[in-house]
# Entry
Amino acid sequence: MTVNVGYIPVDNLELVWDTVLPLLSSAVERQDDTPLSEVVGEICSGSMLLWLVDVDHVPTLVLTTKIIDRHSHSTLAIEWVGGSQMKDVIDVALETLEDYALKVGCTSLEGQGRIGWGRTLKEYGWETKHIVYRKELRHGQQNEGDEPDVYHE
# Structure
C-alpha cells in the first residue's frame, strides 16, 4: 500500500474540486456552524491549505490547515478532516504535516474535533490541552437594541 500526502496549490484547485469536495463536505456537514462555502472561500483565498491523501493513487482523505499566530509561537491548525481510511493513513499524514509545520516556522500542531480524535491522536504524541464547551443562545439571533449591562459601582 502506497500513501501519498500533498497540499493542493490554489492554482490547481479546479483540477481536484470534483474529487475533494465530497470528502470535504462530509467533514463540514457534521458540524452545525460553518457553511461549506466559507471553508471553500478560505481555501480559494489561500488562507487555508487543502491537503489530499491518496492510497494507491485513489483519493481517500482531505485535510485543511492554517497557520495561527499565538502570543509566543505559531501553530499549524488542522481545521477539517474528511474521507475514509483514517487508520491507514494517519501516520503518514501527520508526519507530512509536522514536516511542513517545521518548514514554515511553527512550533506545534493543533486541532479540534470529536472526542474520539483524542484517543486516536494520543498514540501519535498528542495531548488534550483544553476542551471547548458551547451553549447556543437564542439560535444565534441578536435582538435589536440589545446593549450589554454597563458596570456601575
User: Anything to note?
Assistant: The first strand starts at residue 3 and ends at 8. The mean pLDDT is 87. The chain is about 35% helix and 25% strand. Helices lie at 13-29, 36-45, 86-103, 115-122.
